[in-house]
């Protein structure tokens, strides 16, 4: 029982990934805000850029393995 308590306590007090989580939340908020602010005429261009980036990432991932 003490091992379970110690494991839970370590998880509860572990703050090593706290900064990473905060930065991810901020990036998500900025992305949502940017999507709400940009005019709809700009969105197709942004979508095209992200789809090109996604295909490049897929290609590079398949070449790396």
Can you walk through the features of this model?
With 65 residues, this protein is mainly α. The chain is 83% helix and 0% strand. It starts with a helix and ends with a helix.
Q: Give the strand content.
A: under 5%
Quick one: how many beta strands? 0
Structural class: mainly alpha
Helix content: over 70%
Low-confidence sequence ranges: none
Rg calculated over all Cα atoms? 20 Å
Bulk shape: elongated
Number of helices: 3
User: Mean pLDDT, as a whole number?
Assistant: 80
From the N-terminal CA to the C-terminal CA, the straight-line distance is 44 Å
Query: How would you spell out the order of helices and strands?
Result: HHH
Tell me about the largest β-sheet. none
Question: What structural keywords apply?
Answer:
mainly alpha; 3 helices; single chain; 65 residues; elongated
Please describe the topology of this protein.
Blueprint lengths: L1 H12 L4 H20 L5 H22 L1
Task: Please sum up the structure shown.
By secondary structure, this protein is mostly helical. Helices cover 83% and strands 0% of the residues.
């Amino acid at each position: 029982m003490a091992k379970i308590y110690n494991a839970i306590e370590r998880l509860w007090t572990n703050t090593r990934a706290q900064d990473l989580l905060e930065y991810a939340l901020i990036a998500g908020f900025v992305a949502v805000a940017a999507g709400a602010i940009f005019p709809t005429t700009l969105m197709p261009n942004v979508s095209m850029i992200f789809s090109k980036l996604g295909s490049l990432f897929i290609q590079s991932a398949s070449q790396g393995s």
